[in-house]
Amino acid sequence: METADLNPKIATSSCHKLAISWLTMFVVGSDLFVVSPLLPLIAADYAIPLASAGLSMTIFSVSYMLSAPLLGRLADRIGRGRMLRYCLCAFGAANLLTAIAGNLVWLLAARCFAGAAAAGVSPSVYALIGTAARPDRRATWLAVAVSGLLMSLSLGAPIGLLAAASLGWPAVFAGLGIFGLVLAWANNRAWDHSDGGGSPVASANRLAAAAVCARLAPTVAWSTAVYTMYIYLGDGLASFGYSTEEIAEVILFYGCGAISGALIGGRLADRFGARLTGAFALGGLGLCVLLLRLALDSAVLVDFAFAVSSFAAQLFFPAQQIKLANDFPASRATILAWNNSALFLGISLGSLIGAQALWLGGFDANLMVSATIASVSWIMHQRDRWDQAAAVFTQPPRSSGMQGAR
Hints:
Elements: H1 2-33, H2 35-46, H3 50-78, H4 80-100, H5 104-132, H6 138-167, H7 169-190, H8 200-204, H9 209-230, H10 233-239, H11 244-272, H12 274-298, H13 302-314, H14 316-327, H15 332-386
């Protein structure tokens, strides 16, 4: 009887942790994605060019990319729950500073601070989720957390824009700051304080640079392929004669496909293994982008083609995360932080490569380049699967419960 009473309590606690993690990723993602639609309001308020206001997005991304590996390693040493609480407090403070920034210089400083704080939040959440979930549900839980980030793109950014139109853009960042502080309290209640930080295993587990680069190369290539196309989606569709309303409709379908792909990708990784799911996702992405070009050229099922392409793309990320989390259990925050940096590096490369492809050959060329890079990422993933020597570093043998990544 006592065991029967305990199981519902465990299930309730697990659902509570998962809900808090989802909400944390949603708020952090909203902070990243809401800036883009607010740039015209910020530029008008400061009386500066739009390009100057856009530096706030660049400095956030660069700060995130550079800070994530350092903070992830620190989280493995001092405790992932502790790092999460500290970074959420810093995240709240950074957004409050953004709200009261009096000029562009102070705005950029606040956004740099916010990017560094967000870099410590995401990998800590992923590492805590990976530790709390059962081995056969780990990828599913990670996918749910990732879906909070994706939902912020399709829901958080529009809500922020509507709030800014009524209350002004500083109110949006003030709200995010308050949410960050509330989430610091909520995560403090959700997670216990004994999450393995500073364990002898963690300090002895050294990540070899060559191994890390080999394991993260598919993430960089995948992210580059996805964002080569996505960043210039609006311009590309406009070149095909799409109106603003039609572009918004396509983006909505794209977002729905991304959320579905992330959630189903986690289930597939738990069921069939992360390596097989990742290979299927990368191969499917290349094929779907080619089919997307045919759909655009023939003006048939374009919304559906974008949804399927996004679905295939987002199958990869939870599979890659669970593969890394299972292979490096004592350094989960570190390796997942490096994976996030790889994601942002791919976004930067996608922005540069996509712009050149668009300039040289229009959106058709952009899609062909994206499909080619997706094919390269599939080859990288297969090589990692065939050559396990690239992933060797000193750590204790994994237990039998870590078979989900095989």
